[in-house]
Amino acid sequence: MKIFKFLLLLAALGVGGGATVMYSGIVNVAADEPHSDLVFWLLEQTRENSIKKAAQSIEVPDLSDPELLLTGGADYEYMCSSCHLKPDQIESDMSLGLYPVPPNLAVSGESHKGNEQGDEIESARKHFWVIKHGIKASGMPAWGKTHDDHRIWAMVAFIKRLPTLTPEQYQVLTAIE
Amino acid sequence: MKNFRKVAFIVIPAITLSISATAHDPKLHVKKAEKADCSKMDHSKMDMKDPVAIAMMKKCMKQAEKSKGKMDHSKMDHSKMDHSKMKKDEHKTKKKDDQNEHNH
Questions:
Q1: Does a structural domain hold residue B49?
Q2: Is B92 part of a structural domain of the chain?
Q3: What is the pLDDT of residue B67?
Q4: B52 is in which domain, residue-wise?
Q5: Domain of A111?
Q6: Are B101 and B49 in contact (CB under 8 A)?
Q7: Are A105 and A73 in contact, with CB atoms under 8 Å apart?
Q8: pLDDT of residue B94
Q9: Does B1 reside within a domain?
Q10: Which band of pLDDT confidence, cut at 50, 70 and 90, is reported for residue B69?
Q11: Which chain A residue shows the shortest CA-CA distance from B37?
């Protein structure tokens, strides 16, 4: 019985503490003020595990058709490059102003600190899932509401090659005509 | 976590309002509907089995097709063009995949 009371007290304290933090306004939601290391770690782990689980059984189609690079390239330039940058561009208003920071998709995956990539298949699955569903409370929109799976896979195919592209190749692939 | 909602309230309007302003370099604001710049393509350096190279060829051929008769020769560097790789009778065949057969 004692332990039960103790747990009840703990729960009450937890709820009370949470409510105090919530209503006091002490949490700073400004995007130009980074999370503390602990909060950052918690959010990062939550995100990575969530994406990994949700994407694990997505079937990856053949992404080698050159046509995908053209569809995906044009879409990337007009919908994504403002946040995720392009070859030889290192910053934009969005890449500097958003928090969490949009990863620079024009450089290889290993350099997105905190974003586990996994092998090629896993990386394609995760990219597809993230593009389709977006990420809550970050700047990353859910493009699946307005784009069918085929167009999303085309962007996945394009993103896969993006870190290898020169600015000239990028320009040709992404131009409208 | 109510924080998520608070953050969303700030982030969503911020993004909507600023989506058109990509960066302060005004050059980036005039990027609308740019044409592919095919003049810089160096065919000798391209691996025609690479999807990127094939896609670039497709894009540039389609562009050349569209602007037949109104090519801007001043922007072209003929010395870099490899005529052996160009097909003259492209417009007869509507099937896209026919363009894939560049063999070295």
A1: yes
A2: no
A3: 75
A4: 38-67
A5: 55-174
A6: no
A7: no
A8: 45
A9: no
A10: low
A11: A172
